Amino acid sequence: MKSLNRTVAIILGGLILVSAALAQDKGTSAKAVQRLNRAPVSREILQVKLPRPTEMKLSNGLTVLLMERHKLPTIHFSLWINASSLYDPKDAPGLAKFTADMLREGTTNRSSAQLSSEIDALGATLNANSEFGSSYTAMTGSGLAVNTEKLLDLISDMLLNPAFANDELEKYKKRQLAELEELRADPNFLAEERMYRALYANYPAAVTAPTPASVQALSAPQLKQFHDQYYVPNNALLGVVGDFDSKQMTALLEKYLGPWKNRPYTAPNLGALPASAATKVYLVDRPDSVQTNILAGELAVPRNHPDYIPLRVMNQVLGGGASARLFLNLREEKGYTYGAYSSIAADNYPRPLLANTEVRTAVTDGSMHELLGEFKRLREEPVPDAELDDSRRSMVASFALSLERNSELLDLFMRVKHNNLSPDYWDRYPAEIAKVGPDKVQSMAKKYLDPDHLQVVCVGTGKEIKDTLAKYGAVETYDVDGKRMTQ
Amino acid sequence: MKRYSAAALLVGLLFAGASLFAGDVPSLPKMEFTDTHLDNGLRVLLVPDHSAPVVAISVAYDVGSRNERPGRTGFAHLFEHMMFQGSENVGKGEHFILLENNGGDLNGTTNEDRTIYYEIVPKNQLDLILFLEADRMGKLAVNQTNLDNQRNAVQEERRLGIDNQPYGKSFLEIDSLAYDCFGYKHSTIGSMADLSAADLSDVKDFFRIYYAPNNAVLTLVGDFDPGEATAKIKKYFDSISRQPTPPPALPCEEDRYGERRETVMDPLARVPMVIAAYQVAPGNTAENYALRVLGDILGTGQSSRLYQSLIKDKQLATDVQVQTDARRGPSLMYFTATLRPGVKTDDVEKALYDMIEAVARDGVTSQEIDKVRMQNLRRQVQVRESALQVANRVGNSAVYFNDPNLINTALDKYNAITADDVKNAARKFLVPNLRAVVIASPDTHAAQAAQQGGQ
Known about the structure:
The complex is a heterodimer of chains A (487) and B (455).
Chain A: H1 2-13, H2 15-24, E1 54-57, E2 63-68, E3 74-81, H3 95-102, H4 112-121, E4 125-129, E5 137-144, H5 148-160, H6 166-183, H7 187-200, H8 212-217, H9 220-230, E6 236-242, H10 246-257, E7 280-285, E8 291-299, H11 308-319, H12 325-333, E9 337-344, E10 352-360, H13 364-380, H14 385-397, H15 406-418, H16 425-434, H17 438-448, E11 455-460, H18 462-469, E12 475-479, E13 484-485
Parallel strand pairs in A: 2-6, 7-11, 7-12
Antiparallel strand pairs in A: 1-2, 3-5, 3-6, 4-5, 8-10, 8-11, 9-10, 12-13
Helix pairs in contact in A: 1-2, 3-9, 5-10, 11-17, 12-13, 13-17, 14-16
Chain B: H1 2-5, H2 8-14, E1 34-37, E2 43-48, E3 54-61, H3 75-82, H4 94-100, E4 105-110, E5 115-122, H5 126-138, H6 144-163, H7 168-178, H8 182-185, H9 192-197, H10 200-210, E6 216-222, H11 226-237, E7 260-265, E8 273-280, H12 286-299, H13 305-313, E9 317-324, E10 331-339, H14 345-362, H15 366-383, H16 387-401, H17 406-415, H18 419-429, E11 435-441, H19 444-454
Parallel strand pairs in B: 2-6, 7-11
Antiparallel strand pairs in B: 1-2, 3-5, 3-6, 4-5, 8-10, 8-11, 9-10
């Protein structure tokens, strides 16, 4: 009851009461962990060797990974095309996304409604999707193995013969405009939008959504040109996993994807990544918020960089789950939040390491203090051996679980190929993780949780948190529409 | 492929008359299981599956938010959090640590009708998961500090999922409006005031009354030897005492009649939303299955009627979701439409009701029935991909309907639904008098005017 009264007081009393309220709501100070070590644990790490896919090339040069898995009568296709929002022209954010989305809206053989009705009749799912910031566009089709050929026929038609019809495009644009409006109500979207701007500046990965203007301006010829330019087999990777016979599958793939013609293409010059910016705190003022969404971090490395695995280990210690430091401190000890985590994104260009938590407004200061404090602890103190052992063990032992889901298993090997990792990457992974010692983790923290270059975004009720945030760096304020606010 | 054709004949009979299924359609791989009780009443379901070196456990307790009393809404879920705070031989936070650091995954989940705790681990950690579940079933340790800490965490969970999200309050309001019985009327997450009021004696009472072996179902799925697993389960669970049978949940016999409406002002939303919920038959009844089939025809996939009509053709909405509950008691069928900016909620409601009335009047087509059969087959196959999903599914149907074998028979029940069944269910349940409607309005003034107009 007490904490509720305080929340009410903040809203009614404005700024003067805020500092008082912040001083009072300290959350709890429960002990985060108590280890009794009485539970029976097998110290052996179950040795799991991931089954490797067979790699082959179709006559048109398309690289294919085939992975037969016969447990269930299902089939899953995953096609990655190396063209994405990173290739969007500056004045046309969304071009890659629109192109991918419109594949579902009709081909020269099937109307949009026909496509939908044929896909749904198979009980299948089939979509093309180009996420902002990803280095590839993914076309994914899954269904029952009995429908494999029909599904492949649909994939082929969508991929090779998109109609980009004007009437469907006009309807799509209207839906996109409405969805843009909805996105701006979502605090996670607002936090990420500001964070990626801060991290990437003028590099294409700074963009996380189309603009109303770019939606309105896009035209069918632009989409067709993007498709013609980049949707080519020599710029793509196909993976198939499930209940099939490899020889029959190869014949089917030749039949349905063989007609996909190779064409030379030139990847656009993306420019250089910006030098890492000085530490700054971005406030996105979202009035009526009852929580502050905190997102903090820095740019890290591409997936095939030697620092990637040590960074993964560091991330596991910091915020990799419910037994990591952020969760145990901010939730299990302080009671500030429902969850606090960190994650490191991976692609073939540098992606960030970011920590995130959502906390009630009154404990924004305490949460910032603890979150940045955990960064500092990693920089200044070597991780104790036992804790590091646990984190490394967790990363290796969980491999057994990845054998269950076909699409996830395939994904691991799609990444090996897409990110230019060595073919035995997953076989060597446990040994690589075992090599990462406390010194290495600490050096990673010094390098990638550098207090001089940390970017922090807070989305919340501006009038209640702005003064607090100023303690942590120069504050730049934006409204929910992404416009800079001057006061 | 051949492995599945052996049972195709049987499937063909069940699907009689469905032209799409005349060919080679796979049958559902049957999940074999054993079903026994320990002396203390704990029901044990063992589902061996050697396809991956993992083992999953699900412990489902027959208690949910419908068992709560007024003044303690949200308590079943708050209690679920306390089950991770330590027991006689497991320290606070140690549950997470032991599982995650040995390669496992875990969580708990509470709804109106049950509470489930689950883990999945590499198969060599079978003892660990049995020990952890037995220790907290038998000897939960609670203290004031941990309760205060988890109360905070749960209140943040509510803020994260409800109070700080557009439409959050409307999602709670629709249940409150649609039901009269306390058990389903109040939310599982609970009110902030009730969460604040819960004390340590509530935790102890709740544990004593509901967290007894005779009120739980343990399901084990994965790569284990059933004989060995049975011996281990006895070793860890046998000493836990049986308790008196808990009092039954308050009855939820609804006989409400008359449309109910409410407008919720939502400053966090930027576009309006319409939520219409019809009160329908309980889960695992023929009528509920018929409505779930109808839900797919109306709302699943881009070929569905509502997508094609409201989103594509009329361009009234950007998203339409249809969700049909399968509760132990009277259930709800929800229609949720996110409006395109500038569209009137009246127009969306009318378009939605027209589509529903068309079903009641003209029925559905055999192609639509065939399509949903294929979708259901795929779903039922997909559940079998993960031992954890199977464990939770089996444990859930044991607690809900005393029918763990539903994992093998649900598809038949869906496939038994005919176009006539769908039409009849729509006529009976999808009528204005069984409807509750919540309009989420981002425009404060319009919402106030609407509310005054309605009074």
